């Protein structure tokens, strides 16, 4: 039996964010902003932190540079309870990092260095440790140069052969990304991208059509986040359904998709059905969107359950 709840593998980045900024200052000038923050981010990193905050025994499989940013990511994740024994250190490439000015509408502009995530690799001799969890989450395909392609396919196939439940998310997908993603799809139990990323790969726009397209290619459960419109779920069994997002005072959308994935993972780990898991995931994303950065105002499992049960839902687009 696996010893951990979750093993998160893939893209981790150090985010430095500020709010609010809707334009750059002139050359040589500066603007005073309300807040600047440094956070653990990325489709594997933020999801791992959120899973740990929500009470799951979580490990991270990532690669950082031998620099202060890499030290920060490792130590910060450990402070949230994430096991960092499988962190790889690159002696040449710097840690992935980004600068994110956040607009008053909660959107972000991004400047980033791909960094160590591009040199992350998981070889077969590492599988016993990397796959030592009930749930395996691969996050960041398309920004994992060494791991993308055949290594990711072998990893996900091995996860299923060992009876693991698999989750998958990616970032900055485009039509070309699909060639890397397609071989993974038959090995994915929960496919949890944004509608923007999924639609870019599928060449379709309606959530129902996009979800069906991916299910026809092997995905068991297609779960498409719709930003402020909630989530569209096409489950392995039963009818597809939509759940609205919570009505909140939005601060920053950074990490909302990653936190939604964490919420789904928590629900599945607790044995909830997919509707209950998606409801909880919506509340997790809402908590994150109420603060700056990928953790936002997420505090605990109990606090998030209360939000799920009591916070109002959006009723209009």
Give structural notes.
The N and C termini lie far apart (45 Å). The model has no long low-confidence stretch (mean pLDDT 95). 31% of the residues lie in helices and 22% in strands. The protein is α/β, with parallel strands linked by helices and 317 residues long. It contains 10 helices and 14 strands. The chain has helices spanning 45-53, 68-79, 127-130, 150-161, 178-181, 195-202, 207-216, 256-269, 274-289, 301-310; strands at residues 4-10, 13-19, 35-41, 58-61, 63-65, 88-90, 97-102, 111-113, 133-141, 165-170, 190-191, 221-225, 231-234, 241-243. The strands form 3 sheets. It has an 8-stranded mixed β-sheet, sandwiched between helices. Helix 1 crosses helix 8, helix 6 (195-202) packs across helix 7 (207-216) and helix 9 (274-289) packs across helix 10 (301-310).
Q: Separation of termini? A: 45 Å
Tally of distinct domains: 1
The CATH superfamily bears the name Ribokinase
* Unreliable sequence segments: none
> In terms of structural class, how would the helical and strand content be classed?
alpha/beta
Strand content: 15-25%
Summarize the structure.
The protein is of the alpha/beta class. It has ten helices and 14 strands. It has helices spanning 45-53, 68-79, 127-130, 150-161, 178-181, 195-202, 207-216, 256-269, 274-289, 301-310; strands at residues 4-10, 13-19, 35-41, 58-61, 63-65, 88-90, 97-102, 111-113, 133-141, 165-170, 190-191, 221-225, 231-234, 241-243.
């Amino acid at each position: 039996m696996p010893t951990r709840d979750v093993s998160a593998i893939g893209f981790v980045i150090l985010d430095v964010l500020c709010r609010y900024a809707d334009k750059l200052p002139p050359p040589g000038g500066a603007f005073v902003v309300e807040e600047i923050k440094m956070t653990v981010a990325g489709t594997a990193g933020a999801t791992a932190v959120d899973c740990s905050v929500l009470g799951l025994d979580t490990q991270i499989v990532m690669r950082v540079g031998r620099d202060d940013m890499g030290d920060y990511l490792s130590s910060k994740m450990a402070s949230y309870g994430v096991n960092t024994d499988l962190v790889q250190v690159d002696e040449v490439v710097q840690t992935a990092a980004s600068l994110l000015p956040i607009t008053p509408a909660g959107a972000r502009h991004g400047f980033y260095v791909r960094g160590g995530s591009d040199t992350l690799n998981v070889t077969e001799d590492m599988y016993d440790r990397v796959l030592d969890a009930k749930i395996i989450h691969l996050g960041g395909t398309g920004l994992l140069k060494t791991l993308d392609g055949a290594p990711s396919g072998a990893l996900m196939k091995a996860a299923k052969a060992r009876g693991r439940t698999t989750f998958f998310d990616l970032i900055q997908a485009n039509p070309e990304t699909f060639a890397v993603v397609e071989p993974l799809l038959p090995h994915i139990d929960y496919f949890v991208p944004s509608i923007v990323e999924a639609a870019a790969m599928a060449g379709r726009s309606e959530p129902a059509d996009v979800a069906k397209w991916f299910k026809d290619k092997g995905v068991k459960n297609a779960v498409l986040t719709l930003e402020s419109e909630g989530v569209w779920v096409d489950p392995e069994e039963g009818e597809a359904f939509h759940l609205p997002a919570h009505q909140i005072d939005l601060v920053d959308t950074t990490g909302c998709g990653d936190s939604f994935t964490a919420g789904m993972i928590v629900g599945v780990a607790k044995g909830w059905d997919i509707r209950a898991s998606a409801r909880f995931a919506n509340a997790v994303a809402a908590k994150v969107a109420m603060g700056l950065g990928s953790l936002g105002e997420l505090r605990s499992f109990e606090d998030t359950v209360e939000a799920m049960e009591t916070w109002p839902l959006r009723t209009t687009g």
